[in-house]
Amino acid sequence: MSTFFARKEDVISGEIARNWYVVDADGKTLGRLATRIADVLRGRHKPIYTPHVDVGDFVIVINASKIKVSGRKETQKKYYNYSGYPGGLREETLKEVLEKDASRVIQHAVKGMFPKNRLARVQIKKLKIHNAGLPEHGYAAQMPAPLPL
Q1: What is the DSSP letter of 126?
Q2: Structure confidence by residue, pLDDT tens digits, 107-133
Q3: For the chain, which domains are there?
Q4: How far apart are the C-alpha atoms of 113 and 111, rounded to whole Å?
Protein backbone atom coordinates (compact mmCIF):
# COMPACT_ATOMS: atom_id res chain seq x y z
CA MET A 1 0.00 0.00 0.00
CA SER A 2 1.39 3.38 -0.96
CA THR A 3 0.96 6.68 0.79
CA PHE A 4 -1.38 9.14 -0.91
CA PHE A 5 -0.13 12.67 -1.45
CA ALA A 6 -2.54 15.27 -2.76
CA ARG A 7 -1.30 17.29 -5.71
CA LYS A 8 -2.16 20.79 -6.77
CA GLU A 9 -3.67 19.38 -9.95
CA ASP A 10 -6.10 17.25 -7.93
CA VAL A 11 -7.42 20.34 -6.16
CA ILE A 12 -7.73 22.39 -9.35
CA SER A 13 -9.51 19.63 -11.26
CA GLY A 14 -12.06 19.21 -8.46
CA GLU A 15 -11.10 15.66 -7.43
CA ILE A 16 -10.66 16.93 -3.88
CA ALA A 17 -13.96 18.36 -2.62
CA ARG A 18 -14.07 21.72 -0.86
CA ASN A 19 -16.80 21.88 1.75
CA TRP A 20 -18.25 24.96 3.41
CA TYR A 21 -18.76 25.11 7.17
CA VAL A 22 -20.49 27.68 9.34
CA VAL A 23 -19.52 28.35 12.96
CA ASP A 24 -21.58 30.32 15.46
CA ALA A 25 -19.02 32.06 17.69
CA ASP A 26 -21.63 33.07 20.28
CA GLY A 27 -20.24 32.09 23.69
CA LYS A 28 -17.23 30.19 22.29
CA THR A 29 -13.73 30.66 23.72
CA LEU A 30 -11.46 32.51 21.30
CA GLY A 31 -8.42 30.21 21.38
CA ARG A 32 -10.33 26.94 21.16
CA LEU A 33 -12.46 28.28 18.33
CA ALA A 34 -9.41 29.57 16.42
CA THR A 35 -7.62 26.23 16.75
CA ARG A 36 -10.53 24.30 15.28
CA ILE A 37 -11.00 26.81 12.46
CA ALA A 38 -7.29 26.73 11.58
CA ASP A 39 -7.35 22.93 11.34
CA VAL A 40 -10.32 22.99 8.96
CA LEU A 41 -8.83 25.76 6.79
CA ARG A 42 -5.57 23.82 6.44
CA GLY A 43 -7.36 20.50 5.83
CA ARG A 44 -5.97 18.69 8.86
CA HIS A 45 -9.36 17.13 9.56
CA LYS A 46 -9.23 15.17 6.29
CA PRO A 47 -7.46 11.85 5.78
CA ILE A 48 -5.90 13.23 2.58
CA TYR A 49 -4.12 16.08 4.39
CA THR A 50 -0.90 17.06 2.67
CA PRO A 51 1.15 19.86 4.29
CA HIS A 52 2.35 21.48 1.06
CA VAL A 53 -1.02 21.48 -0.78
CA ASP A 54 -4.13 23.47 0.08
CA VAL A 55 -6.75 20.75 0.68
CA GLY A 56 -8.70 22.67 3.33
CA ASP A 57 -12.30 23.79 3.42
CA PHE A 58 -14.04 27.16 3.68
CA VAL A 59 -15.24 28.44 7.08
CA ILE A 60 -17.87 31.10 7.75
CA VAL A 61 -17.88 32.57 11.27
CA ILE A 62 -21.02 34.36 12.42
CA ASN A 63 -21.65 36.35 15.61
CA ALA A 64 -17.94 37.16 15.88
CA SER A 65 -18.60 39.99 18.33
CA LYS A 66 -19.99 37.55 20.91
CA ILE A 67 -16.83 35.50 21.55
CA LYS A 68 -15.61 34.91 25.09
CA VAL A 69 -12.15 35.08 26.60
CA SER A 70 -11.03 33.81 29.97
CA GLY A 71 -9.45 35.76 32.79
CA ARG A 72 -8.69 39.45 32.39
CA LYS A 73 -7.71 39.23 28.73
CA GLU A 74 -10.25 41.88 27.69
CA THR A 75 -8.21 44.54 29.45
CA GLN A 76 -4.71 43.01 29.45
CA LYS A 77 -4.36 41.59 25.92
CA LYS A 78 -2.91 44.21 23.55
CA TYR A 79 -2.98 44.49 19.77
CA TYR A 80 -0.17 46.53 18.25
CA ASN A 81 -0.03 48.37 14.94
CA TYR A 82 3.12 50.12 13.75
CA SER A 83 2.92 52.64 10.90
CA GLY A 84 6.66 52.63 10.25
CA TYR A 85 7.15 56.22 11.36
CA PRO A 86 8.73 57.43 14.61
CA GLY A 87 6.05 57.52 17.28
CA GLY A 88 3.74 55.48 15.07
CA LEU A 89 3.22 52.53 17.41
CA ARG A 90 -0.45 52.21 18.35
CA GLU A 91 -1.82 49.77 20.89
CA GLU A 92 -5.39 48.74 21.61
CA THR A 93 -6.85 46.38 24.16
CA LEU A 94 -8.95 43.39 23.18
CA LYS A 95 -12.08 45.16 24.42
CA GLU A 96 -11.42 48.17 22.16
CA VAL A 97 -10.79 45.98 19.12
CA LEU A 98 -13.96 43.95 19.77
CA GLU A 99 -16.00 47.16 19.85
CA LYS A 100 -14.49 48.44 16.57
CA ASP A 101 -14.20 45.26 14.50
CA ALA A 102 -14.61 41.86 16.13
CA SER A 103 -13.67 40.04 12.93
CA ARG A 104 -10.11 41.34 13.31
CA VAL A 105 -9.71 39.46 16.61
CA ILE A 106 -10.67 36.08 15.14
CA GLN A 107 -8.66 36.72 11.96
CA HIS A 108 -5.56 37.53 14.04
CA ALA A 109 -5.97 34.46 16.25
CA VAL A 110 -6.45 32.06 13.33
CA LYS A 111 -3.65 33.60 11.27
CA GLY A 112 -1.23 33.14 14.16
CA MET A 113 -1.84 29.38 14.05
CA PHE A 114 -0.74 29.06 10.43
CA PRO A 115 2.83 28.52 9.29
CA LYS A 116 4.47 31.68 8.01
CA ASN A 117 4.64 30.94 4.29
CA ARG A 118 2.92 31.59 0.95
CA LEU A 119 0.49 28.69 1.36
CA ALA A 120 -0.82 30.17 4.61
CA ARG A 121 -1.60 33.45 2.85
CA VAL A 122 -3.76 31.51 0.39
CA GLN A 123 -5.46 29.43 3.06
CA ILE A 124 -6.44 32.36 5.30
CA LYS A 125 -8.49 33.79 2.41
CA LYS A 126 -10.96 30.91 2.85
CA LEU A 127 -12.03 32.36 6.22
CA LYS A 128 -15.16 34.52 6.05
CA ILE A 129 -16.06 36.38 9.26
CA HIS A 130 -19.32 38.22 9.96
CA ASN A 131 -20.53 39.96 13.08
CA ALA A 132 -24.19 39.37 12.19
CA GLY A 133 -26.30 36.22 12.46
CA LEU A 134 -26.84 33.34 10.03
CA PRO A 135 -29.34 34.84 7.53
CA GLU A 136 -27.05 37.78 6.70
CA HIS A 137 -23.78 36.01 5.92
CA GLY A 138 -24.49 35.81 2.18
CA TYR A 139 -23.10 32.32 1.55
CA ALA A 140 -26.35 30.38 1.66
CA ALA A 141 -25.85 29.20 -1.94
CA GLN A 142 -22.82 27.17 -0.85
CA MET A 143 -25.02 25.27 1.63
CA PRO A 144 -22.62 25.46 4.59
CA ALA A 145 -22.86 22.69 7.15
CA PRO A 146 -22.43 23.41 10.87
CA LEU A 147 -18.89 22.71 12.01
CA PRO A 148 -18.79 20.30 14.97
CA LEU A 149 -16.64 21.78 17.73
Answers
A1: G
A2: 999 999 999 999 999 999 999 999 876
A3: 8-68+101-146 (3.90.1180.10)
A4: 5
**Nearest CA-CA partner of 79 in 55, 120, 42, 111:** 111
**Three-class SS state of 44:** coil
In terms of pTM, does the model score above 0.85? yes
Are 146 and 36 contacting, i.e. CB atoms less than 8 angstroms apart? no
| pLDDT tens profile 72-81 | 999 999 999 9
Q: Are 68 and 138 in contact (CB under 8 A)?
A: no
Highest mean pLDDT among 6-10, 45-49, 105-109: 105-109
Using CA atoms in the order 130, 132, 136, 138, what is the torsion angle rounded to 10 degrees? 0
